[in-house]
Amino acid sequence: MIVYPAIDIKGGKCVRLKQGNFGEITVFSDDPALVAKEWQAGGASYIHVVDLDGARRGANYNNSVIEKILASVSIPVQTGGGIREMKDIEEKLAMGVARVVLGTMAATDPELVKQAVYKYGDRIVVSIDVQGNRAATHGREAISGKDPLELCREMKSIGITTITYTDIQKDGMMRGPNFDATREVVAIGGLDVIAAGGVSSLSDIREMKRTGAGGVIIGKAIYNGAITIKDAVNVAEKEN
Question: Could you confirm whether 129 is annotated as catalytic?
Fold first, then answer.
């Protein structure tokens, strides 16, 4: 299982939200590129970057910051937030990101997701953020009518092979992930599931590994020192 340390960017700074709430923001660093370098030095093999301003407003607000992150590390970076059109995808890939993460588009424009997969294959990842029993969109500030598991199946049917799955109620709360929901997504089969939301300890990582998830996104627990990148990677990627 791969560890994806998270770098969420708002106003050019590295921040974390509580339950996706833009009114509950903690700033951890003014230099996201330096944070990325630290994650790589700690043993991370991949980095997950989200443009929160973009996710909320539907535009590329922090491209210059993402470019600095890309220049600061040699490991692959996947990024999402504010990607609503094919040109947004192409712009991100041209910058040098390894994978583009589509969130709102999955619920609102599956045909465009299908076109992106046809053109770029497994460089397209879908992010499904869940509020209650519905998929959230637009920076988690809107709720679609889509059932999360049905949306996962729909994305699989159009060629998506990797999905990030976040329980918003768990995100940033440091109270453990939603393991049952992760198992349900993994049980669909044929998807590399990257779970997110609530990881707060090494035991959480071990349990997440047992769900069959292929990856885990960790944010707040690393920033506040509850888990080190080195220990997280050892447990997730090396421990039997």
Answer: yes
The pair of structure tokens assigned to 186 is: 């993994």
Q: Which spans in 74-143 are helix H?
A: 86-95, 104-108, 110-120
Reported as a single tens digit per residue, the pLDDT across 116-160 is: 999 999 999 999 988 777 766 665 556 666 888 999 999 999 999
Beta bridge partners of residue 4, listed in sequence order: 217
Of 8, 51, 88, 204, which is the active-site residue? 8
Q: At what angle do helices 86-95 and 63-72 cross, to 10 degrees?
A: 30
Query: 180 an active-site residue?
Result: no
Q: What burial class does residue 157 get, using C-beta atoms within 10 Å of its C-beta: 0-12 exposed, 13-18 middle, 19+ buried? A: exposed
Residue 1: count other Cβ atoms within 10 Å of its Cβ.
22
Closest CA to 73 of 34, 107, 27, 109: 34
pTM of the complete model = 0.91
Q: Are 77 and 57 in contact (CB under 8 A)?
A: no
